[in-house]
Amino acid sequence: MRPLARRLDDLGTETAFAVSKAASEWAARGNTVYPFHLGDIDLPTPGNIVSAMSAAIDAGHTGYCPAPGIPSLREALARDIGDRRGLSLSADQIAVQPGGKPVITKFIQTLMESGAGVLYPSPGYPIYESQVEYFGGRPLPYGYRRTSNGFDIDLERIAELAPTASLLIYNNLQNPLGCESSREEMEAIAAIAIEHDLWVLSDEAYFEMRYSGTSTSIASLPDMEERTVILYTFSKKFAMTGWRLGCAAGPRQVIDMIAKLNTNDESCTTHFVQHAGVAALNDPTGAASLLAELQRRRDATASALADVPGVAFAVPEATFYLFPDVSGAMDMTGHRSVGEFATAALHATGMSFCTRHHFGRPLPDEDDRSIRLAYSGIGVDAITEGLGRFAEWVARGGK
After folding, report:
1. CA 111 – CA 265 distance, rounded (Å)
2. Using CA of residue 110, residue 116, residue 119, residue 124, what is the dihedral sign?
3. SS3 helix, strand, coil % of the chain, rounded to 5?
4. Taking the complete model, does pTM exceed 0.85, yes or no?
5. In angstroms, how far is CA 54 from the centroid of its own chain?
6. Vertex 321, ends 157 and 346: CA angle to 5°?
7. Would you call 140 helix, strand, or coil by DSSP?
8. Three-point CA angle 385, 391, 394, nearest 5°
9. Which residues contact 282 (CB under 8 A, 6 or more apart)?
10. Domain span(s) for CATH 3.90.1150.10 in the chain
11. Quick one: DSSP state of residue 112?
12. Which fold has domain 6-44+287-395?
């Protein structure tokens, strides 16, 4: 029998799911698990969205629909995305997708030639690296520097690599770090993109998942709208991770090609789910209670994590992640590998979390002894209990 296609060797995965498997196996043996590993949301989708989906099914919206999306959703998305970012978007600048993740793939397919360089964040969402390599691009990861109040992008590396790149992936309000660019940092990135004529994918999955302040899109900066594709998803704001609904928003010529890929890949995004998306945008009040609960969890996580010895972290104002440096805790428990540390913590305390290595390959000069805590799928009581056990374990030297 002929072997599988060789290009599959370059296809990565979302490695947080591997941590889920280990956690599930540990729980199946009768152990308590505190699930900080997966950025899923265990809160219910707002009722008006669920009702709209049911009504759409009852009305017979169960067949094919236009590949770029139903007109009412494209119009609502253009209005909502544009208003919140200070952009003037039209419906023909929107291509509806089955989630936010396909935007990454289709952006790369549409704009990257084979062998072209693509700048992307590392640590960052691992699908960036996977898709660049799978479609034959040249990966150009850029990193971050930990500061007293969060992280700064390594602008020097971006500037150094930009002359050899054609695409730049930028994830402000970042997964896994939870960090946000200052205005100055965003303007510096925009200047590099303009100077080197780079297409930009602005991954804005967490644009509205913030507890204070106001988000800014890089597309709203001067001369950036015409070179930027925005990734939008309903997954986070409306607790719709499993519904699979999002869109690409950007220049018409790019969106037309992304819509053509829709026809080739999935024909269309599920018809009745799109009607639910219209209801979500027309009445987003349910999202406020979701965000309030996530803030409670953020505060509980930060409070309990502060009691863990040998851990350093900043408290982000957005996303639902903390990314602590656990170097001291690893030394105290006798672990040199962050992967071994994570496994030992699961078995000793039930704490399940991802490590730096689940978010792209570490850069050569990087200290990789960090972990990601996602608090979107675990309640306040379990957060406090799990991190309390973790703190005791570290204080006992891993015994």
Report:
1. 17
2. positive
3. 45, 15, 40
4. yes
5. 28
6. 110
7. strand
8. 140
9. 76
10. 6-44+287-395
11. P
12. Aspartate Aminotransferase, domain 1 (3.90.1150)
All CATH 3.40.640.10 domain ranges in the chain, comma separated = 63-282
Give yes or no for residue 67 having a pLDDT over 80. yes
Half-sphere exposure of 149 (CA within 13 A, CB side): 4
How many C-beta atoms surround the C-beta of residue 3 within 10 A? 6
- Where in 122-274 does DSSP place strands (E)? 138-142, 144-147, 150-153, 165-170, 199-203, 228-233, 246-249
Q: Kindly state the percentage of the chain with pLDDT values over 90.
A: 92
Q: Report whether pLDDT(23) > 80.
A: yes
Contacts of 264 (CB under 8 A, 6+ apart): none
Measured CA distances, 149 to 103, 121, 184 (Å) = 31, 19, 16
- Arithmetic mean of pLDDT, 222-228: 98
**Tell me, what's the pLDDT at 17?**
75
Q: What is the per-residue pLDDT across 304-325, written as a single tens digit (0 to 9) for each? A: 999 999 999 999 999 999 999 9
CATH fold of 63-282: Aspartate Aminotransferase; domain 2 (3.40.640)
Distance CA 142, CA 355 (A): 18
Residues in contact with 299: Cβ distance below 8 Å, sequence separation at least 6, in sequence order: none
What DSSP state is assigned to residue 218? G
Q: Which two tokens stand for residue 150?
A: 């969060």
B/e letters for 157-188, b = 16+ CB within 10 Å, e = fewer, are bbbebbeebbbbbbbbbbbbbbbbbeeeebeb
pLDDT exceeds 80 at position 346: yes
Classify the phi-psi angles of 226: left when phi > 0, otherwise alpha if psi is within -120 to 50, otherwise beta.
alpha
Structure tokens at 81: 């995305």
